[in-house]
Specification:
Blueprint lengths: L9 E5 L2 E4 L10 H5 L2 E9 L2 E2 L2 H14 L8 H12 L7 E9 L16 E9 L10 E5 L20 H12 L4 E5 L5 E4 L3 E6 L2 E5 L8 H10 L5 E5 L3 H5 L3 E6 L3 E8 L2 E2 L7 H22 L1
Parallel strand pairs: 7-8, 7-14, 11-12
Antiparallel strand pairs: 1-2, 1-6, 3-4, 3-5, 5-6, 8-9, 10-11, 10-13, 13-14, 14-15
The protein binds pyridoxal-5'-phosphate.
The site of pyridoxal-5'-phosphate has 13 residues, from helix 5 and strand 13.
């Protein structure tokens, strides 16, 4: 996992102005603040190049459509706002970029969707890119709290409603683990609180199908890498016993990349030197990022 920088440098774009994040604010009537009525994207910028930005903007746009949230910014404008923010950061440091779009201010106390003016906020914050010295891998517990079912909230939308994830992670942390794996109401292994989950058992890579999870951009890249056929892979619905029989497992996310798991429910998975598939995919994902950066800088 990436360690947060001791003194993060953070800038915010709001209504055409860039300012230190500590000086940026929104009004108390904002529906993102009041109801979580918002969508967002979090992505990494390395050497001041936003990584897989097109994929993130596409997911943001699809999320806006699904929530009937007007989204009037062209991709080029968003790219410009991000580039402007990145000029405030030293090129040698990784930066986390967060794009948030809310439905704007509540009108007349109405909770239903009325025509409000959406609010865009873009934020950039440096992270310490040195990885954790701890090499054993993340410790995960399976949360008692279940994932919100798709019939209530579309898991494909990266909405501002993270309460179930927050409570599941805190459940894991209170029990001494770092993060939680969430099951669906009927016991299917879905994902971690803010990352997708892959595991390897008997020479096949498994992950939950995207009807129950956020279709992560990193997950998409890993599935693409797996298309080369070096190892079999499957997506689908798997019960907890299937995951608990895994040899290796890892989380994926735009900020953590491919992050190997050390234990699940205190059951140790393969030790770092024996995690051949996790390490290989971690390296190949890093290579994709390097290719993305060099393609852009050239
Ligand atoms: C619930 C959830 N799943 C998966 C992910 C990973 O998605 P991505 O690879 O696009 O960062 C995230 C990222 O924040 C998330 O919140």
């Amino acid at each position: 996992m990436k360690k947060p920088s001791a003194r993060p440098c953070s800038w915010t774009w709001i209504e055409g102005e860039v300012m230190p994040t500590t000086s940026a604010s929104i009004g108390v009537l904002d529906r993102g603040f009041l109801y979580g009525d918002s969508i967002f994207e979090t992505l990494l910028a390395r050497k001041l190049q936003p990584i897989f930005l097109d994929d993130h903007l596409q997911r943001l746009r699809e999320g806006a459509d699904r929530l009937r949230l007007p989204f009037e910014y062209a991709d080029d404008s968003l790219r410009e706002f991000i580039d402007e923010l990145l000029t405030h950061h030293p090129p040698e440091q990784d930066v986390v970029v967060r794009i948030t779009l809310t439905r704007g201010d509540r009108i007349d106390g109405e909770i239903g969707i009325v025509s409000s003016i959406p609010r865009l906020v873009v934020m950039s914050t440096t992270v310490d890119s040195s990885t954790d010295s701890r090499s054993t891998g993340i410790e995960l517990l399976v949360a008692k709290r279940r994932k919100i079912p798709p019939a209530c909230l579309d898991p494909n939308v990266k909405s501002g409603n993270y309460l179930a994830s927050i409570l599941a992670r805190s459940e894991a942390q209170l029990a001494g683990a770092e993060d939680a794996i969430m099951l669906s109401l009927d016991g299917i292994v879905t994902e971690a609180t803010s990352a997708n989950l892959f595991w390897i058992a008997d020479g096949t890579v498994y992950t939950c199908s995207d009807d129950l999870v956020l279709p992560g951009i990193t997950r998409k890249k890993i599935l693409w890498l797996l298309e080369d056929g070096e190892i079999d892979f499957e997506t689908g619905h798997y019960p907890l016993e299937h995951l608990l029989a895994a040899d290796e497992a890892f989380l994926t996310g735009s900020i953590c990349g491919v992050d190997p798991i050390g234990s699940i429910q205190q059951r140790l998975l393969r030790s770092p030197q024996d995690r051949s598939w996790s390490r290989r995919l971690q390296q190949r994902y890093e290579d994709l990022i390097v290719a993305e950066i060099s393609g852009r800088i050239r």
